[in-house]
């Protein structure tokens, strides 16, 4: 019960931060452009609490699954305010300014992802070292009997070079039931150790009885970390776009969609797993979610920022504004489809969790 509560609180905090940062982007650029921001809300209506400061109502709403910034003039059907100059209306701003407001949320989520990644790089991240070392020696194992120690670097088995853990695992399988010769380095000295590769080791121990890894913690200098963080997140964004493209292709061609596709419930479950691995794992997960939110929002899907941006491009190409009613209905239909998809994916999440997969 305590674990579920911890997961729920962590998931809610992460979601709150991501939504706040996204909407803050829209809010700040709109304010900079001189547009009247009527409301800056966390969650979706109905409203729980609201306070007006200056021209803007800052509100907390009952449904904590999103947020919004209500700009004057964004809704074409909204009655005109006689006491508000037209220059403060969203619809009367240039296409460049409207586009800047629309992409501001995406940019903020990308910046947040880069910021978190930068912090993690500075504080130390595990990276492949090209060397396999012993992380733990199991009590009572052949490894302990022959004096293998934590920190020993294994360079070869029976003369075969070891570069990554898989090399040692695969080689050991060939010599099960026999005594093998390991070449190791300890305190800068090379030595050979003869150890039995058991046929039937206790579960989770392996033939020799060691836990191995090729990872080492690398600390990036402050001046290098931001550049590296940008490169990492650009690469991740590209991979996300490839994944979305593959998913859409499978849906269109009626192929089976992999179970890795997750909705809010699945994401909450993954949050619980991240919590088990500590604060840095939660931060890494939050960074990926923030980037994912940026990538999805920039896609030309009605009701999302990318969909609204697509209408701006259409307006630019046609040389005139599209009918507001048409745009509004398109976004409404898009929102209905998105909610329907989220429900379907959530049902799949529940069924998958119930199966324990």
Automatic annotation (TrEMBL):
Bilayer-crossing residues are: 6-29, 97-122, 333-351
Question: Which is an annotated GO molecular function term of this record?
Answer: metalloendopeptidase activity
Q: Which GO terms describe its cellular component?
A: membrane
Localization (cell): Membrane
Read off the PROSITE patterns from this record: PDZ
Q: What's its EC?
A: 3.4.24.-
* Family matches, as InterPro entries: PDZ, PDZ_6, PDZ_sf, Pept_M50_Zn, Peptidase_M50
Query: Per its UniProt entry, which superkingdom is the organism in?
Result: Bacteria
The UniProt keywords, alphabetically, are: Hydrolase, Membrane, Metal-binding, Metalloprotease, Protease, Transmembrane, Transmembrane helix, Zinc
Using the record's annotation, list all stretches that form the PDZ domain: 124-164
Family, similarity comment? Belongs to the peptidase M50B family.
Please state what the protein is called.
Answer: Zinc metalloprotease
UniProt organism field: Candidatus Gottesmanbacteria bacterium RIFCSPHIGHO2_01_FULL_46_14
